[in-house]
Amino acid sequence: MLIVGSERPPEYHLRDVMTVRAAIMTAARGGSVQRDARTPTRILHRAESLLTPALVSALVAGCAGGESASEGLEWRTQVDTVGDTVVVRTLSGSEWGAAQLVAEIRIGAVEGADHELFGQITGLAVDAVGSIYVYDAQVPALRKYASDGRYLATLGRKGGGPGEYARSDPGGLAVLSDGRVLLRDPRNLRFTVYSSDGEFLESWRMRTGTYTFTPIVPMADGGFYNPVFPLGKPTRLVRYAADGTPGDSLALPEPRVELQTITAQVEGASQTWAVPFTATSLRAFHPDGYHVSAASNEYAVDLLRREGGVLRLVKDAESVPVTSEERAAEEQRATEAMRRLDPSWSWNGPAIPRTKPILRELYAGEDGRIWVQLRQPGQRVPDAELQPRPGGRPAAPRFREPVVFDVFDKDGRYLGRVTAPARFSTAPRPVFRGDHVWGTETDELGVQYVLRYRIAAERGQP
Fold it and tell me: What is the reported pTM?
């Protein structure tokens, strides 16, 4: 079903819909969209915006009924147009079927040389030939490894001089499109730039020194986006040119939901936490230069495209229940955190929900794919893996969720559901590119490793 803006008089509806359908069929046969003087320009623009390769192939067989005519496990979809929003609703199936992340290389060791031991990995980046850059905040050290995992070099060192760094933050490591390596160093209030061989090139002054988890996003022209904090929290992304010159800024999307919080306050200090398992606003920045956003309690992911209009990815999903044990553990953890500031604190916010939001996080891959992390049932962490609390008291119970993603291409086609290994971590932010994912795992002893994974799909390769 293709629905074109309901604000137009009824006599325009059929002609507008037929224009879009005819355009799809024409493009599928190798033709181009023909402008019809009777049809409003905005409708022709809408037709052209629909003519992405993914949507053409999905709709051409079933445009009379609005659903692709494929059967079985093939991707079946429905596309609606409401105002300036194109809604791609996955009905069933996918391109890949079920998929797994399978480890291909592993870097790290329990014992060994310094470059084999990781203390606290907060940055991960990969260049065009697959070389891996790892920032270990515990040392600190920025190291380079070959695509097969061999150690190659350490870039810079701790300090405040040229080529040195004091402290980078999560998301503060990136490889620019021309191969230069960029390290964000808020303590020294600068970006440090290295060549791919590890040579220090130059430093660029930052417009803010605030510590942040918002990642640097490289762009195709050698520039990048980085957040600024004019009001004490990230509200805009600043566009830096390839030579480090700051330019225009881009506002972040408005929050999709109001955050539910608890607060502890004493004279001169306060602390605020989000109530566990309540809805949050999610966002990512796409390498094509636009935001991706969602509310975690609704499976509706918006791609706020630069050319105008919104592409919305919609899919049915059920909420995951919060078990009584998991709920109690989260309440205990939050209460202990608040009472470290105010020993008399008692719960002063909404109750912890009995179901989890549908979505946990959004990621935009370097190839433009959208990775949607889904909430999952919690699994209790074995007590042996937990650190005792101060005074030798047993650690509070903790739960972790398996990491599961739904993956879409940037045209809205649903590629499949990808399950990560049991110890896969999303901190630091993984690198998603094509058929591979680079990320970290932590073993039962707390030792970190860097891994490259391949996406192994049920129906052939992705």
Answer: 0.85
